[in-house]
Amino acid sequence: MLTKKYSLKKKKDFARVFKKGKGQAEKFLILKLVKNNLEFPRIGLVVSKKISKKATLRNKIKRRLREGVRANLARIKPGYDLIFSARKGIEEKSFWEVRKEVEKLLQKAKLLKNG
């Protein structure tokens, strides 16, 4: 579980990342990022109703994304706001596929300290 410190919560913060952020994409996940002036990264997750009308499935996807981020949190460079947006197709992926996709996106964006 991510602590509140690492969570992107406010609507204006999400809006800033979506407006000014640079993006990276993989098959079923999109990463938007923008610099912040903090000494730690903040992460937001977006799983829209286009993915599934069922809240339970959307929450399951968010839990998988959150765990994928948590596993890499110590390696993520500080000073960034990140938003992971799910794409159609993620609902059929396993936990390990989602986790691998999160890591791949972080590497692609050059956000991992040793990668």
What is the terminal separation in angstroms? 23 Å
Mean pLDDT: 93
CATH topology: Ribosomal Protein S5, domain 2
Query: What is the number of beta strands?
Result: 4
Shape designation: globular
Structural class given helices, strands, pairing?
Answer: alpha+beta
Could you name the CATH class?
Alpha Beta
Strand order of the largest sheet: 1-2-4-3
Largest beta-sheet details: 4 strands, mixed
The H/E string reads HEEEHEH
List its salient traits.
115 residues; alpha+beta; Ribosomal Protein S5, domain 2; 3 helices; 37% helix; 20% strand
Protein model, in words:
By secondary structure, the chain is α+β, with helices and mostly antiparallel strands. The protein has a single domain, classed as Ribosomal Protein S5, domain 2. The protein contains 3 helices and 4 strands. The protein has helices at 11-20, 55-72, 95-108, and strands spanning 22-25, 29-35, 42-46, 80-86. Helix 2 (55-72) crosses helix 3. The radius of gyration is 13 Å and the shape is globular. The mean pLDDT is 93.
How would you summarize this macromolecular structure in one to three sentences?
With 115 residues, this protein is an alpha+beta fold. Helices cover 37% and strands 20% of the residues.
Topology:
Blueprint: H1 11-20, E1 22-25, E2 29-35, E3 42-46, H2 55-72, E4 80-86, H3 95-108
Parallel strand pairs: 3-4
Antiparallel strand pairs: 1-2, 2-4
Helix pairs in contact: 2-3
